[in-house]
Amino acid sequence: MSEDAATGQGRPAINPWLVAPLVALAAFMEVLDISIANVSLQHIAGDLSAGQDESTWVLTSYLVTNAIILPLSGWLSSVMGRTRFFLACIIGFSASSLACGLAPTLGLLIVFRAIQGLTGGGLQPVSQAILADAFPPRQRGMAFALYGMAVVFAPAIGPTLGGWITDEVSWRWVFLLNVPVGIVLTILVTALLEDPPAFTAARQERLKRGLKVDYAGLGLLTVGLGLLQVVLDKGEEDDWFSSPLILWLTIASAVSLIAFVIWELGEEDPIVDLRLLAERNFGMANFLMFLLGFILLGSTVLLPELVQRLFGYTATQAGLVITPGGLSIILIMPVVGRLVSIFDSRHLIAIGLAITAMALFRMTSFDLDTDYATFMWARIYQALGLSLLFIPINTAAFLTVKPEKSSAASALINVSRNLGGSFGISLVTTMLSRSSQAHQTVLVSHATPFDHAYRRMLDGLVPLFQGQGDTVAEATSKAVAQIYGIIQREALMQAFIDDFRLLGIIFALLVPLVFVMRKGKPHGPGPATH
Fold first, then answer.
1. Distances (CA, A) of 368 to 3, 267, 454, 492
2. Residue 103 class from Cβ within 10 Å (0-12 exposed, 13-18 middle, 19+ buried)?
3. CA 339 to chain centre
4. Lower CB count within 10 Å: N or C terminus of the chain?
């Protein structure tokens, strides 16, 4: 390894452009598994003789352990060594994927999925930390572009790919697919990666002082984040705080997380370095990344659900609505990677927020006659804005982070994005249910004999059914049922529009906050690495 004169950072002797796609693929594989199994739940439940509610624990178990390990990955990297920890994650993730694919019962599948989330959770933050250290600031934009393509495209392609694999082969191959990829990654990581000198020196110094494990912090974090993820995943299903279980889990999670923050801030050697959030750029970047995850995953859930519930799209067709947006991200992100080396990251973030907000406001014009092309282009417009966010936010976040802190910083910013996604999904699904009921109540109040529009529609439908051989009473009953179906569809459409509007407002309000961050000096495009 050699030392970069400008930054004081260790850089690998191996060409970093060989390292970048390698770690991006590892992150892609892990993020893909968060969403790829969603569409297979019915098949899993049927094949393993389980109920639909029971099968959802296949998702929850993964998310819970994933949420727990993410913030710990920085500490584990500093103790084990980043490359060694990365390799352990790949091997563990591949082995647990094999176990998931071969699981004979639902109970074992849930256990193996929990192990998969635990071993795979470190892949995202470690991948990002490796990129931050492998490239000098002037080239980090392009490096983060590769990483961004992986973690943003994966949830977009996941449902489509999962649906196709499940329909054409078997749900088991959703998991078994990771095994050959994991083997290749293990070989390449062993051959190409090693820790940078600054990181190695900090690790050796830490071990020389004696390894102290913050057991209290570890316990509070595990309980707090684990219970929080269960609440976010199961809250809507159990009608939130009307369920005593959800209420008590929320209280226990809140108490644990508050105690965790207080404890960690008083620790000399914390298991999660929360003090990094006090730095203005890094703290604001985490806030923006939380909301990026919120909008990205929230809207990724809404759009397929809209076309399936209101337009009769199959799971594969619904996936094809959002996949073009993912493909456009792949095309745009390398361009953004070059732009961050030329322009102030804050300006790119502000433009990205504005474009995403406008794209979400555009979705509020959807109606029950909207066609596939309109849905697809709306998602592509949104993807354009999201592409202008991920790389500049990460670049601004790592602007003032020391090399030895890059693993801890990467862990925190990935936690922010994942928690944002969980909160986003929970909020939009809850709002969708409540808003749909509210709109239906308003619309039904007009469906009376005293309403002119209702009478006109009824008068038009009754003769139509009579012409098909129904009596007056039968025709009237069918007409009323059809009108009620129209009301239900319209109420649900208005609820989707409410969700899109809320997400758009949130992003629009964020634009001025971007300039709280310090100005990042452009470093110029920088020469290509040979």
1. 60, 56, 19, 10
2. buried
3. 24
4. C
Which two three-digit tokens encode residue 238?
């159990």
What does the CA dihedral 270, 513, 421, 129 come to, rounded to 10 degrees?
Answer: -50
Asked if 409 contacts 282 with a C-beta cutoff of 8 angstroms, the reply is yes
pLDDT one-digit tens code per residue, 482-515? 777 788 888 888 999 998 998 899 888 888 888 8
- HSE-CB at 321 with a 13 A cutoff on CA atoms is 24
User: Cβ-count burial of 512 within 10 angstroms (0-12 exposed, 13-18 middle, 19+ buried)?
Assistant: exposed
Residue scoring higher pLDDT (476 or 182): 182
Residue pair 43/237 in contact by the 8 Å Cβ criterion:
no
**Whole-angstrom distance, CA of residue 323 vs CA of residue 158:** 9
Give the DSSP H or E segment for 447.
none
- For residues 24 and 127, the answer to whether their CB atoms sit within 8 Å is yes
Residue 141 · residue 340 · CB < 8 Å: yes
Q: pLDDT tier at 256 (50, 70, 90 boundaries)?
A: confident
Looking only at Cα atoms, what is the longest distance across the chain?
A: 90
Residue 470: per-residue pLDDT = 67
Instruction: Kindly provide the b/e burial profile for residues 149-165, where b requires at least 16 CB atoms within 10 angstroms of the residue's own CB.
Output: bbbbbbbbbbbbbbbeb
What's the 3-state SS for 311-364? HCCCHHHHHHHHHHHHHHHHHHHHHHHHHCCCCCHHHHHHHHHHHHHHHHHHHC
Task: Determine contact, residues 318/162, Cβ cutoff 8 Å.
Answer: no
pLDDT in tens, 271-296: 777 787 877 788 888 888 888 888 87
* Partners of residue 2 on adjacent β-strands: 11
User: Alpha-carbon distance 246 to 104, whole Å?
Assistant: 30
As a whole number, the mean pLDDT across the chain is 78
Please provide the distance, in angstroms rounded to a whole number, between the alpha carbons at the two ends of the chain.
16
Token pair of 383 as six digits: 């993807």
Q: What pTM was estimated for this model as a whole?
A: 0.73
Yes or no: say if 129 and 407 are a contact pair by the CB < 8 Å rule. Answer: yes
With 60 as the cut, is the pLDDT of residue 156 above it? Answer: yes
> Per-residue pLDDT averaged across 421-433, rounded?
81
Strands 10-11 vs 2-3: parallel, antiparallel or unpaired: antiparallel
Could you tell me which residues are beta bridge partners of residue 10?
A: 3
Q: Which of 391, 418, 476, 357 is nearest to 148 (CA)?
A: 391
In this predicted structure, what is the pLDDT of residue 6? 38
- Secondary structure class of 3 (helix, strand, coil): strand
d(CA 311, CA 256): 44
Each residue's pLDDT tens digit, 214-253: 778 778 888 888 888 788 877 777 778 788 888 898 899 8
Choose among 130, 514, 519, 518: nearest CA to 291: 514
Burial of residue 373 (number of CB atoms within 10 Å: 0-12, 13-18, 19+): exposed
Q: Which of 86-100, 108-122, 333-347, 397-411 has the highest mean pLDDT?
A: 86-100
